Amino acid sequence: MSAVREQLPEGRYGRSADERADRKLKIAGAVLGALFLAMIGWFGWHYVGGTKISAEMIKFDVVSDTEVQVHLEIRKDADATGVCTLRSRSEDGAEVGRKDVPVEGSATRQDTVYSIRTTAKATNAELLGCTAR
Question: Rounded to 10 degrees, what is the CA torsion of 118, 92, 69, 113?
Fold first, then answer.
């Protein structure tokens, strides 16, 4: 008995349906990958480029049971105004002081020490963030 061949001769009748589907999937994957990279780039640019005010806490000093001094360096666009929020916590993590610091003026760099009044002895201070108005 002879063996019956169920496949077409290779290369004789063009591409198979599987090869066409693979090519379409590769093209769709490349397009979706490019769109994903473009979206990530846009979000990154918007996050970094959209910030008009940024600050860094240089140091803090617990002056007394009711006061913490925070040394901030603020960088901003010349026309930007806004607010930076400072917070102080006690040893158990409870918030004992908070202060909103206005950011104004035409100077693009401000280096200032701010005082936060506290309701109990603080063990740290932190910069929560800055927002432009």
Answer: -110
Compute the distance between CA of residue 69 and CA of residue 3 in angstroms, rounded to an integer.
91
**CB atoms inside a 10 Å sphere around CB 60:** 22
What's the half-sphere exposure (Cβ side, CA atoms, 13 Å) at 39?
6
Phi, psi of 26 (to 5 degrees): -65, -45
Are 68 and 88 in contact by the 8 Å Cβ rule? The answer is: yes
User: Sheet holding 82-89: strands in order across?
Assistant: 95-103, 82-89, 124-132
User: CA 4 to CA 56: how far, in whole Å?
Assistant: 78
Q: In whole angstroms, what is the distance from residue 120 CA to residue 9 CA?
A: 87
Q: What gap in Å lies between CA 21 and CA 102, rounded to an integer? A: 60
pLDDT in tens, 84-100: 999 999 999 999 999 99
Single-letter amino acid code for the residue at 74: I
For the whole model, what pTM was predicted? 0.63
Find the helix or strand (DSSP H, E) in which 114 lies: strand 109-117
Contact 88, 118 (CB under 8 A): yes
